[in-house]
Amino acid sequence: LVSREHHVDRTAVTVAGVPIGPDTLTVIAGPCAVETPSQTLAAALMAKAAGASLLRGGAFKPRTSPYAYQGLGESGLRILADVKAETGLPLVTEVIDPAGVELVAPYADMLQIGTRNMHNFALLQEVGAAGMPVLLKRGFGATIEEWLMAAEYIAQRGNLDIVLCERGIRTFETATRNTLDISAVPVVQRLSHLPVIVDPSHSGGRRDLVLPLTRAALAAGADGVMIDVHPDPGTALCDGDQALTRPEIAEVADAVARLSPLM
Ligand code: PEP
Fold first, then answer.
1. 226-250: per-residue pLDDT in tens?
2. pLDDT over 70, % of the chain
3. DSSP calls for 96-160
4. Which atom from ligand 1 is nearest to the alpha carbon of 165?
5. Residue 229: CB partners within 8 Å, gap ≥ 6?
6. Smallest CA separation from ligand 1 atom 8, residue
7. Do residues 81 and 109 touch, judged by C-beta distance below 8 A?
8. 10 secondary structure, DSSP code
9. Given ligand 1 and candidates 64, 94, 197, which is best to mutate, with the most ligand atoms within 8 Å of its CB?
10. What's the gap in Å between 8 CA and the centre of ligand 1?
């Protein structure tokens, strides 16, 4: 269903009126995690000022360590709803288990499946049945074939509004948190008609790499990027090392704008 064998032209997915796909560069930005109402609003305003058309932010955070910040859960969703109303930015937010889809879906414009859940087939089927756009992150240990098969699980339930997100894979390299598999962008675009975006924040795990990785992603043909921002990264409860400050996201936005006419 997601292969170009039967669907030759690349497709666009529309999220609350915002297109993601060929002929557009979509910027999704926001906090990695919802921490407080003021932090979430400040991050969303930073994203909006930089030209982002969709807001990201996690209320449910599936962390490697059970001792790390796990997100605010439902109260985080309510904060996101307020910030969405105030900024007018449609919301992309993560759902971490099948039972959570019913709770998260009314708040979200796009449901995010994180890297750790790419193989959670019951969750993929549930978001497939939810009938709303899905952002499917690549598992950090998944091949492209496995990633596309995960997309098939969603598509099989009648939902083809799927955007694929390359977010780095695990390699032997330790200088970066993950290794951005830049070749995945053109490879997937040849195999699948679905839009492909890149998350340069989780790929490198370092704010100094977000700009170069964004440039690389767009040069490789990505349909957009998803970027973490924080009003005060030093105090962030989740992934502060990769969160951009106001001037840094403005610089990335400028780079995206410069690359747009080259598409
Ligand atoms: C995220 O985008 O909030 C996130 C946790 O990303 P990933 O699943 O790619 O680690």
1. 999 999 999 999 999 999 999 999 9
2. 99
3. -SGGGHHHHTTT-SEEEE-GGGTT-HHHHHHHHHHTS-EEEEPPTT--HHHHHHHHHHHHTTT--
4. 9
5. 29, 30, 31, 43, 46, 47, 50, 243, 244, 245, 246, 249
6. 114
7. no
8. P
9. 94
10. 30
Amino acid at 105: A
Q: Can you tell me the ipTM of this complex?
A: 0.99
Q: Which CATH class is domain 13-258?
A: alpha beta
Local structure of residue 221 (DSSP, 8 states) = T
Report residue 182 as tokens: 């830049």
Tokens standing for 8?
């030759």
Q: What is the CA radius of gyration of the chain?
A: 17
What are the φ/ψ torsions at residue 18 (nearest 5 degrees)? -100, 120
Length of the chain: 263
Cβ(245)–Cβ(211) under 8 Å? no
For ligand 1, atom 10: residue with the closest CA: 115
